[in-house]
Amino acid sequence: MGKRIIESLNNIDGISVKEGLAFCGTEKVLLKYLNGFYSSIENKATEIENAYKSGDVGYYTTKVHSLKSTSRVIGANELSNLALKLEEAGRSEDVECIDANTDKLLKMFRSYSSKLAILEKINEDLNCDKRPIDEEELKEACRALTEAIESMDYDAAEIILEELKKCKLSIKDSECIMNIEKALRNFDWDEMGRILETK
After folding, report:
1. Do residues 112 and 148 both lie within one domain?
2. Between 20 and 30 A from 124 (CA), which of 18, 58, 166, 168?
3. How far apart are CA 128 and CA 167, in angstroms?
4. Pick from 153, 37, 45: which is nearest to 109 by CA?
5. Is residue 1 pLDDT above 60, yes or no?
6. What is the pLDDT confidence band of residue 126, given thresholds at 50, 70 and 90?
7. pLDDT at residue 129 in the model
8. Rounded CA gap, 44 and 4, in Å?
9. Average pLDDT in the 155-171 region?
10. Partners of 131 in the beta sheet?
11. Which residues, listed in sequence order, are joined to residue 167 by a DSSP beta bridge?
12. What pTM value is reported for the model?
């Protein structure tokens, strides 16, 4: 990663690159976590919102705990601190505090969809030496990967993933490939199948 990319990350409102690096160690790892955070914002925000609306304080507390941790790792301190406050409120069943702050949390969390949109350009710059892949080729690769998973063919799955990593992929698809690769290392075929199904 170059100086220009670090400068771009420093310009993201609500992110402390210095603190993110303190947790992640390197720019490459920080960028990986930022991409993962960015690609999952809407799904995780909806999970928190649904848990709140259904009155499931236990699940709500689990989800804001997770948000507290991931926010801290990327240096989103204000968001992390608010999530911590709501985690503590959930553990003590302080419904009044949860009612007063959940909307603020969700708005702040979802605001990172636009704040982190610059990651699209950063990743495009980093992937400039990778070859383009069209939608049909990607679908075919996913079909082949599904077959490899169903037959528990480690070598075939590894080859397909390595080829996909050489291609220009969206942040969401890159995150998906990374998670499948992690599951493959653990021989977790069920998890690999689940990730592909939700793609």
Report:
1. no
2. 18
3. 10
4. 45
5. no
6. low
7. 65
8. 30
9. 87
10. 167
11. 131
12. 0.67
Task: Give the domain range for residue 86.
Answer: 1-126
Phi, psi of 131 (to 5 degrees): -85, 145
Percent with pLDDT over 90 in the chain: 55
Evaluate whether 41 touches 113 at the Cβ level (below 8 Å). yes
User: 82, 101, 126: which is the final residue of a domain?
Assistant: 126
Q: Helix 118-126 to helix 27-39 angle, to the nearest 10 degrees? A: 130
Q: Report yes or no: 86 and 96 within 8 Å, Cβ to Cβ.
A: no
C-alpha 45/C-alpha 42 separation (Å) is: 5
Q: Please, are residues 33 and 73 in contact by the beta-carbon 8 Å criterion?
A: yes
Answer yes or no: are the C-beta atoms of 181 and 164 closer than 8 Å.
Answer: no
CATH code of the domain covering residue 100: 1.20.120.160
Nearest 5°: phi and psi at 34? -60, -45
Judge contact between 74 and 33, C-beta under 8 A.
Answer: yes
